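Reviewer 2 asked us to include a model.

Predict the structure of this chain.
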Amino acid sequence: PPPGASPSPARSTETRGDRQGQGGGHGPERRSDLEPLLLDRSLTFEEKMRQLDTYFEDRPLLVAKRFAQIVGAFTRILAVWRLDNSKPEQPLPPPGCAFETDAEECQAPEPERYRGTVLRDTVCSLGVLFIKLAQTAATRPDLIGDEAAMSLEKLQDRTSPFNTTLAKQIIAEEIGSEKFSEITDNPVAAASLAQVYKARLASTGEQVAVKVRRPGLVDQVALDSYIVRLILRLYTKVFAGADRDYEMLFKEVGSGLLEELDFRREAENAREFAEAHAHIPYLRVPDSIPDLITTRVLTLEWIDGRKLTELPSAEQRDMVRKGIDVCFAQLLSTGIVHADPHYGNMLYDNSGKLTLLDFGLVTRVTDAQKEAMAGSVVHTLNEDWVGLINDYRELGLLPKQPAIWVDKEGNPTGGLGQGYWKPVTREEFVTAFQSSLEADPSQPIVPAAEAVKNPPPKAQIRRKRTFSEITSRLTELSFQYRFTLPEWMLFIIRSVITLDGFAGRMKPPFNALELAYPHAVRRALTPLTRGGQQALLDLLLTKDGDINLQRLSTLFQDADETDTKQGTTGTPLSEGGTKGGGGTSAAAAGITPSLSEGGSEVIKELISSVEGAALRRVLYKLNTELALFRLLSLISPLHFKKLSKVEKQMAPVVMTALRRQLFGSWVEASPPPPAPLA
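Predicted model (structure tokens):
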């Protein structure tokens, strides 16, 4: 804070470090005794927390002081929340509206009360751990309530910058001030974790970004983590049998924050991410300068670019499309996911490329999880709700035994009131699930028992649902029926909701879920797990070994509808499609043809590729007799005109499969396929 300003409780250690730096001593900030512990990669998060317990149990006065600050802050929130019956003072933007292109776009359907502002301001004053907990909790209205969740969606990390003199002292101590010929007097960006300066390398004259960790942050995060765990233990004792979702949320946020404290890890994440996504032509990741990186200072390539709010509408649209496309390339293809893609971490450079910043938080997704997410996209757009339920079980979102929340008398109830989970039949849950997703979004969800007797009105012509809409409907359902949220999905859901919200604010809006479809279909055709290979077999072939044209027709018809509605070629941008600003066509770039250009072309291309091994195994199981009959019917002049588009497209696929079975080769130069599945 500026000289003479009163520091907030969350920045008390920073002020102490500032005074130490002015006094000469041993540098601007005494390196925390806890830093080796918190940044030790050989220890699990639980092991680190247990050692923090031991450390702070010997420091009761320090804990009591901070505990009083936190309790006082939340007491104020609760008091205002209970007593504020005033009329709302300002509009609350819809979910995902984190920027304003004009006043009309971001008008909320319902205005916000004063208490929402108090909630955000108080959370922000408590520091980085509480900011990140609140931002993540905004995706869990089932835990904190709708109004609180909507209020926290607007929460932005706008912590005041710390003293630049102190920042330069940290740079000098960590890597040496002589490495830079100039550094700006004021940070170009500041948040509760770090702030960034623009500098120039003395050796080359190259412009770079220098990120400096906020002084005292390690001690503050450690103390706050101990206190939050203490509060959670008290909560568990008071509310015996309560769900442990709050503990899970803290574990995921806390472990991620500890990773963000180490800038060496951020640099490693960025390099790994850049290598995994090097095939995406429109994506940029700033290079780091290896010799100028420590736990507290990170030096990166400087990239000139504009934020989403600074772009005209056409470039906004292009940037959001690219952001969504790369999001699903991460989720469904590479499995290395930038877990914090808010609009402040994205730039649109001068050549129209998307630049991603801040890789302190990166999530890894397994092959099975990628396939389940791809299946959920396909099943949602095909309205296969039973298939979607199976995908959610695979992802860990649904327990094996469905259950409904009931009060002490055993009557179904919603909300956050006291009660317990009562097991229900699978059929009852499927009914409730289907009713929820098919119902008119303007109507409330009704309990399954009532839905069976009096089905709620279905929405009219609503095949294509947005991710945010589905999340909202399932969140409402989770107030009645049991859902679980795996730790690894917290940041992924937040990321997709954010980008889907951006897409919904465009004029005209577009659907992130539909843009994910080409990625999902390609993932479904190239499974990496035994379960995915079996699902591919069920998709392509009937029990008799014939081509399953009905399912393929649905699959590729959805791709056609998606491409027509979105006005795109259907080829994922990450593979060179023409979505948005000046991209080249798939054909011109030598890229895989799109689904809309012919589903068979995708299958034919994959048959001869390395990633098409599973597809080759499936087609090897094609029934030769039925395939010959199918081929004759497909190429017969009498029947060809009557065939559907997909049936016409599948003729060369059947021919390719027969060629393999009859002549033992897929293509002239391709290696033999792997052994078929058992």
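The first strand starts at residue 90 and ends at 91. Residues 118 and 194 are 24 Å apart (CA to CA). We have added this to the supplementary material.
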